[in-house]
Structures are given as C-alpha cells and as structure tokens.
Amino acid sequence: MKRAMRTAVGLGLLLLGVASASWASRGSPLPSSSSSGPVKTPAERAAELYKSGLKARDRAVANLKEAKEADDEKERSSLEKKAGKEFDKAIDRFREATKLNPLFHEAYSDLGYCLRKTGDYAAALDAYGRALSLAPGYTPAIEYRAEAYLGLDRIEEAKQAYMQLFPGDRSHADDLLGAMKTWVEKRRKDPGAVSPGTLDDFARWVAQRDEIAVQTPSLSQLQKREW
C-alpha cells in the first residue's frame, strides 16, 4: 500500500516537472490559481488607448508650435518630423479605440483632427462624419470638420458649420472664425482654384461675422454679468 502511494506521488511529481519544462520552453509563466485582477472590458481598454492618443496628439501640436517659432531650418524640419510621428501614434491609438468601442464618438473626432493635420482630408471627413452620426451636437467635431472643409476650399459648408456653432458654443465658433481669417489671408497670397469674386465675397462675410461676434456677448459672458 505504502509502495503504491510512493509510486503515485513520484508519478505526480514527474508529470509536474514535465509540465513546468513545457511551459518554460514556450517562454510562458506557469498558470496560477491566483487572479492578477479583473479583466478589462473593451470599452475600458478603448478609454486607455484614447487617453494615450490624446497625449501623443498634444505632443504633436506642441512640436508644430515650436517648429513655427524656430529660426533654424534644420531644427524646424526636425520638429515637424517629430510632430508627424506623434500624429501617427495618435491615429493608431484612436483607430484601435474605435475598433474596441465603435460608439466612441470622441475618439472618432480626435482621429479626424489628427488625420486633417497630416493632410488626409478625405479620411478626416469620414472620421468626423462617424463622430457626428453618433453625437450630432458634438461641437468639437463640427468645428474640426469645418476646418477640413476650409482645407478643401468648401467654404459654404464651413459657413454653415459656423452658423450652427455660433448660438450655442462661442468658443468653438470663435476658433473657426479665426481659421476662416487665416484661410482668407492664405488665399490672398495663393488663390489656387478659388476665384477672386468668391474670395472677396467670403472675406466680406467673415468680416461681417467678426463684427457681429464682437457686438454679441456669448451665453457665458451674459451669465457673468452682474445685474
């Protein structure tokens, strides 16, 4: 009886040794009965990727700002390359986040932002469209998409976006108006396919909207007033 027990124990140890060697040969840790923590849901993993993407996006924006201020051409080129790499990182992470959580409208919007900054306007518009199909009133996507329209000289659609933003989100409306002023200055120097008449009409419209914006307090400004 004792011999049988010793034989069984020995056999068990031998099998355990074989299993350990097999796991080690594959470079895998031995399975443990203790849990390393709760498994994260796809939505939680998407949120982590989104935060990581935002950090990469912000680094890219900072690099571009430094590049504009750099006097040395070599330094400016280096900073622009760094910005491009950071935008690529952000794009990858935002895309992965939307795969894990297809309802993540913020990730779609910021994906569009980064795509626009890298010059891929078609993909940017698609991403903004996805964001706004999920959250039609999401003002960052409305503004960013309008700036993409400006990049494609689709000024009528940009104007519609501004009129949509102005009553409820003056901050993004003001940012878009600033982008419109920059677009006018750029097209004065390089009209591209924009006709002089179209450019003049849009420049007048921008000037009129700027005057109205100065004369019209925003909701937040009204709330700060002491009556």
What does this structure look like?
By secondary structure, the chain is mainly alpha-helical. The chain has a domain at 137-212. Helices cover 78% and strands 0% of the residues. The chain contains ten helices and no strands. It has helices at 2-25, 42-69, 73-100, 105-117, 121-134, 139-151, 155-165, 170-189, 196-215, 219-224.
What kind of sheet is the major sheet? none
What's the helix count? Answer: 10
Please give the number of β-strands.
0
For the record, give the distance between the C-alpha atoms at the N and C termini, rounded to a whole number: 97 Å
Mean pLDDT: 86
Structural category is mainly alpha
Order of helices and strands: HHHHHHHHHH
Percent range for β-strand residues: under 5%
Shape: globular
Q: Provide the helix percentage.
A: over 70%
C-alpha-based Rg, rounded: 28 Å
Low-confidence stretches: 1-34
Could you write a compact summary of the structure shown?
By secondary structure, the chain is an all-alpha fold. It has a domain at 137-212.
Topology:
Blueprint: H1 2-25, H2 42-69, H3 73-100, H4 105-117, H5 121-134, H6 139-151, H7 155-165, H8 170-189, H9 196-215, H10 219-224
Which short descriptors sum up this protein?
mainly alpha, 10 helices, single chain, disordered N terminus, 227 residues, 0% strand
